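dude i think i finally got it to work??
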Amino acid sequence: MTRKPKTPSPAPVEKKAVVKKPSAAKQNGSRIDLAHRERLFSYEFHHNGGNATQAAIQAGYSPRSAQTQGSELLSSPMVITHLQNLSAQSARDSIADAIEVHEALTDILRGKVDHIYPTKSGLLTGPPPTGDRIKAASELQKMRGGYAPVKVEHQVQNHVQIWMLQSLQVIQQRLKLSQQELDALASALPALTLDQVK
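look at this
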């Protein structure tokens, strides 16, 4: 029996990978078919909630030996690796990334998302309320670095403190004060607040 040479697989595409179910197991009994069965078993085990016997049957093993095969397959390094990859992929697919969050908030802001309004005659759908749209706009601005009054306040406070330290150093140099005299002078100065600076 002659085998066809494998064709090279195309370069990976930067998209969210969709976990596809491998095709049904082949009955040749070769190592390739065993690897295929292991991948199919991994997929079925991951998607059926962890039932090794059912996964073995779905992977093409005999129902009479499925329980034993399932237990043995769970200790196979290839199956363990496939299960870890499937779990990681599921975790990545279930977590919204920053772009998804931006898109969802933008859809709310633009009124593209339907909101359900209860009325005496039943439920009506319509654009989100103005408050939700304003909140979405605010969240988008926060995510993009807008609305940072606290950061600005801390920056001003830091600049004032740096200015005061530099001023004290100049006073120390001109008056030739010792470090103790400088510390006494600094402690005698009132602590400046932003209200006093404004």
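Residues 40 and 198 are 70 Å apart (CA to CA).
im so relieved honestly
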